[in-house]
Design goal:
Length: about 425
């Protein structure tokens, strides 16, 4: 496991982590919302603009060729990172949200009235609202898979809901609230027996653990660069090439065509078909640098260390009087969970808890974390969420717990 000395070395690469909140050093525990960026990522993006900026794919001059090469090298790098079958299975988007909208709109023509889309109650709104919209447009039905008492997906509920009408199954690889990490290969293998298209929202898994689209047996996976230490405004859609090739474009315009007549156009093959307009080369280059950064630490190491921090925090929060956890159950070292600690404090609004923690230098998130149906299902309106990265230390977990324990006192309540 990563030692505290190694973590302190890693932290030196993140200038923002030296921020002070008043006179207190920042403890950044909002990593599920966005991760901080290492110097390497900031420099890679800056360097692109300093030395290679041009509109790629369209020019014959030196800078345009450099921009094209950088962009396409990153596509190769992402393909390798995700274990894609082909490089052109990687489509760059603005983020996971755009990737999921792209899928909903381009898969919609396959849906007939009465068809079903199956998602889980764990889903982030990004993997929920596009399906609501498309289901309504096509007369299809949006169905939900619910949870067992441990907050795992309920396998028997899944078996009961899968049927010949299920055309799309879209499941999170890791919940941004409960930390549930379903065994998706089992879920997708079953869905394939019914011929459903299998999608995973892997936004919260890819930054924390090894990820292999082939092992999962998925058809599509999406993620966001900013959750994996890369720049905002960049995301990825991976899809099986045969499927991408059978799908219409999502956006129309420059760079996504083979040829254009006055009344019609012949569209380019994937991935260009889905990358209309000027692409975000700087963001993609930053993402490439971020993948180098995490690969150097090693995703197995990251997973092991972050689960260690998460388990320390979970055990300590469970001991605080008045705190209730909403985390997937199970605390053995082998237990797979996301690096999130969702909780509420009896009689204190989550926003007040987050505000008081901020005064102690601790950054956590409060609200429904873009998972309102899940919160309703859990019987609460909102929660607080601490979320961890490999750059967090054991001492930071202690500071978080100290501050959290003191919240009622700091509010003058008890
Ligand atoms: N899916 C999950 C599980 C998320 O946690 C998030 C962001 O919080 C998203 C999708 C959407 O990502 P973005 O806002 O970067 O598009």
């Amino acid at each position: 496991m990563l030692s505290q000395a190694e973590v302190r070395e890693i932290r030196k690469e993140f200038p923002i982590l030296t921020t002070k909140v008043g006179d207190k050093p920042l403890v950044y525990l909002d990593n599920a919302a966005t991760t901080q960026k290492p110097r390497q990522v900031i420099e890679a993006e800056a360097n692109y603009y300093l030395t290679a900026n041009a509109n790629p794919h369209r020019g014959a001059h030196k800078l345009a060729n450099m921009a094209t090469e950088l962009y396409e090298n990153c596509r190769r790098q992402v393909a390798k990172f995700l274990h894609a079958y082909r490089v052109n299975e990687i489509v760059f988007t603005k983020g996971a949200t755009e990737s999921l909208n792209l899928l909903a709109y381009t898969l919609a023509p396959r849906l007939e009235p009465g068809d079903e889309i199956l998602i889980s109650i764990l889903e982030h709104h990004a993997n929920l609202i596009p399906w609501q919209y498309i289901a309504r447009e096509r007369g299809a039905k949006l169905r939900y898979l619910y949870l067992d008492e441990k907050l795992e997906l309920d396998w028997s509920d899944y078996l009961a809901k899968l049927n010949e009408q299920t055309k799309i199954v879209s499941l999170t690889a890791c919940s941004n609230v409960t930390g549930t990490r379903p065994d998706l290969s089992k879920y997708f293998a079953k869905a394939k027996e019914f011929g459903a298209v299998c999608i995973t929202d892997s936004t919260q898994l890819i930054p924390h653990a090894p990820f292999d689209v082939r092992e999962l047996g998925a058809d599509f996976a999406v993620c966001s660069s900013h959750k994996i230490y890369g720049p905002m405004g960049t995301g990825v859609l991976w899809g099986r090439y045969e499927l991408l090739e059978s799908m219409p474009p999502y956006h129309y315009g420059g760079d996504m065509i083979e040829s254009v007549d006055e009344q019609s156009a012949c569209f380019a093959r994937p991935a260009s078909r889905f990358e209309a307009g000027t692409v975000n080369v700087g963001g993609v280059v930053g993402l490439g640098a971020a993948l180098d950064f995490v690969s150097e630490i090693g995703l197995e190491n990251i997973d092991e260390y972050e689960r260690h921090l998460t388990e320390l925090a979970l055990e300590a929060v469970a001991q605080i009087k008045g705190c209730q956890l909403f985390s997937v159950a199970g605390t053995s070292p082998a237990y797979l969970r996301g690096a999130v600690v969702p909780f509420s404090y009896e009689g204190i609004h989550p926003h007040d808890v987050a505000t008081v923690l901020n005064e102690q230098g601790v950054a956590v998130r409060a609200g429904h974390h873009c998972a309102e149906p899940l919160h309703r299902h859990l019987g609460v309106n909102s929660t607080c969420r601490a979320s961890f990265s490999f750059y967090n230390t054991e001492e930071e977990v202690e500071r978080f717990i100290e501050a959290l324990t003191a919240v009622p006192k700091l509010m003058g309540l008890r």
